[in-house]
Each structure stands twice: as C-alpha cells, then as structure tokens.
Design brief:
5-stranded antiparallel beta sheet, 0% helix, 202 residues
Length: 202
C-alpha cells in the first residue's frame, strides 16, 4: 500500500482515482497513443463480503438418460419433480429375474433400489436396500433405517422389467446416499432368470 517510492502513489482508505486505457492494435508499444481511455473513483476498502455460492437447484424439467446395451439392455432415466426429489426410471431385460441400481463406489456401503418380480410375473416388489459386501443387500428397515422409495410404476412385459420410483435427494436416512450435483457413481446389475431371487448372483 505504501512502497516508500516517491513514484508510487500511497493507497489508503477512501476514494481512489483509477485511470485505465488500452491500445487495440497489433504489436502496439507504449509509444503509441491509446485507442480509448477513461477514469473512475473506487474505494478499495468498502467492499461487500463475498456471497457464498448457491448450490444449483435441479430444474423440474431437466431430464437425463443413460443406456448400456451390454448389461441386460440397461436403461436409466431421471428427472426432478421438485427441488428436493429425483424421479428414476430403470429397465432391464428380464424373464422373471431381478434388477437393481445403486449409488456408491462399490457394493460395500452402497445404497440400492432392488426390483424383484413375483413368481407369476404379475407384480414387482421394490426394495429400498443397503449393501455392505458382494452379497445380497439388506432392507433399510431391517437395519434400523426407513423405506424412502416411493413406487410410481412397475411392469414386467415382453421380457422387459421397468421400474419408476421417486425419492428425496437427501432422505435423512444413513442407509441412503445423498444425491447432490456433480458426477454420481451408479451401480447396476440384473439376473435374467425365471423367478430369480436376490440370493442368485447377477
């Protein structure tokens, strides 16, 4: 602020005159006159505190999708019914076997949504689950958590298992991953067998 050099201005509190100019030319040296110049007055000390960044709010009409034909014709779609919830639609090739999606870097400590068709294929059970290892996951409710998945639609038609659910981005349940902005690791697996339960490997 004060260099002690008589050729430097002392910058102190209060209004400070600021000059600015430029030359919009090729290889313009300082011996060439400016293209434009101006000046203003600023108080460098009178600055509003920085505004903390506001996390992006999901747009209700924002829709995304992902597909992996190599893994059971897997399809995943998502949208945001409101700023606090996510709607998930997933599909697998199935002739009665289960399908599941999860959130987490591995099967250890993974938040899972599991869909298991009934033996007659007339209904589909959707389970809010938690996985701790390469093994069938446990229901959140059996671990002391809560069932936070709202089923919108399920079907098993012409060899395709389709599930539509809604859940909060942050359910408050320690057995649910918080879904926030940024890249999210998604796990998915299925068993394309008749009447395959979750004790059968994908």
């Amino acid at each position: 602020l004060n260099t002690g050099d008589k050729y430097d201005k002392v910058l102190s509190s209060g209004m400070q005159d600021v000059l600015y100019a430029y030359h919009d030319g090729v290889n313009a040296e300082m011996n060439q006159y400016h293209t434009e110049r101006s000046q203003t007055s600023l108080d460098f000390w009178n600055v509003s505190p920085p505004v903390p960044p506001v996390p992006p709010v999901p747009s209700p009409d924002k829709v995304g999708s992902f597909a992996d034909a190599k893994v059971g014709g897997f399809k995943l779609g998502w949208s945001f019914p409101d700023s606090e919830s996510i709607r998930l639609t997933f599909e697998f090739v199935s002739h009665g076997g289960w399908g599941a999606i999860g959130f987490g870097s591995s099967m250890a400590e993974a938040d899972m949504i599991v869909a298991v068709p009934s033996a007659d294929g007339q209904s589909v059970s959707v389970r809010d689950s938690w996985s701790t290892a390469e093994a069938p996951p446990s229901l959140d409710t059996s671990l002391g958590g809560s069932d936070d998945v709202t089923v919108v639609e399920t079907s098993l038609l012409e060899g395709v298992l389709r599930v539509v659910v809604v859940r909060k981005l942050n359910t408050g349940d320690k057995y649910d991953q918080v879904l926030s902005s940024g890249t999210q690791v998604v796990l998915y697996a299925y068993h394309d067998g008749v009447n395959a339960e979750m004790n059968q490997y994908h």
